[in-house]
Amino acid sequence: VKISDLRTxxxxxxxxxxxxxxxxxIEKARKLKVRLRPHVKTHxxxxxxxxxxxxxxxxxxxxxxxxxxxxxxxxxxDILYAFPLTPDKLPEALHLTRRCREFHVLIDHTxxxxxxxxxxxxxxxxxxxxxKVDSGYRRAGVDPRSExxxxxxxxxxxxxxxxxxxxxTHAGQAYSSHTAAEAAAAAExxxxxxxxxxxxxxxxxxxxxxxxxxxxxxCQVESLSGVDEMRPGNYVFFDKFxxxxxNCKTEDCAATVLTRVAGVYPDRSEIIVDAxxxxxxxxxxxxxxxxxxxxxxxxxxxxxxxxxxxxxxxxLIRCEKxxxxxxxxxGDLLEILPNHSCxxxxxxxxxxxxxxxxxxxxxxxxxxx
Length: 369
Ligand SMILES: Cc1ncc(COP(=O)(O)O)c(C=O)c1O
Fold this sequence. Notes:
Elements: E1 10-14, H1 15-32, E2 35-36, H2 46-53, E3 60-62, H3 65-73, E4 78-84, H4 90-99, E5 102-107, H5 110-122, E6 127-132, H6 147-158, E7 162-168, H7 180-203, E8 209-212, H8 215-220, E9 229-230, H9 240-244, E10 255-265, E11 270-273, H10 277-280, E12 297-299, E13 305-310, E14 315-319, E15 333-338, H11 341-345, E16 351-355, E17 358-363
Parallel strand pairs: 1-16, 2-9, 3-4, 4-5, 5-6, 6-7, 7-8, 8-9
Antiparallel strand pairs: 1-10, 10-11, 10-15, 11-14, 12-15, 13-14, 16-17
Helix pairs in contact: 1-2, 3-4
């Protein structure tokens, strides 16, 4: 099958770039002397997970129990479910605990610890957890400078029914950076906060794995002393957001949305394509570095075009004034580089995997929760 035979909109993965991004991160982790526990939420496919790990089927990070189930059924034996656990998910967490060699849940509150402990005691099974730490993102996690954080860690470590396997953070604040140097500073903050908290716990006799991870920090970090593992995910695809904050080049981006021109409006220098919000997502991207008004994607090889608006199925592409829009034909193919590849990928039931202009594979992601 050739790319031009595909029904649009279609999610395209450039296999060589995906493989290269995976190899580079494996190499980076080796250089930093940390374990790579890649996040698979970006693509949610077994094929992608295997490439992220390289030769060995080692530990992975997931964002939903649906991913955990899917990867465990495919033979992945060490799974970290890195979203704060809610009580409704305990039965499945227990099932995965029994099924996998290692399965870890995430906790950042004493009430969540109560739920896990009560459930584990009732079922006479030890449930392994990571303690979520806020290293500056202010989304989830305990404050590592607080006394209550050490108390919660101590309680989890002492519990007969819970095992405290690690402490974990995600430096999402790195996405607010403007340059690679700013992301490197965020990475150093993430490392220092976690290494210090790990040290405080060690002083209390609590030994844990120290886990950090985001794509900007993993790409820009130079040292991870005091850290044991990192969990980037987006790097497999990258996207316009990562290009805009200076974290990668456009040529590194491995995921695009193939779309066809459905309407041509030369009088206003605009065209309509068949990739709307349900094919691209409506993530505004790196608005802090983007030109205003927001752009929802760029068009590969067409710097004079940008995705200026989205409704459910319509993508509005605005062209620079001197563009010969009258030469654009209905049915012409364009490739859009999305703002946020994780959200874009999640909208597609299947991915078309390309090498040059040929489709060589089809990957089916797992969906739902
Ligand atoms: C807990 C956790 N770990 C790791 C990641 C991976 O970060 P990135 O998407 O920047 O690669 C995320 C992303 O949201 C996350 O929430």
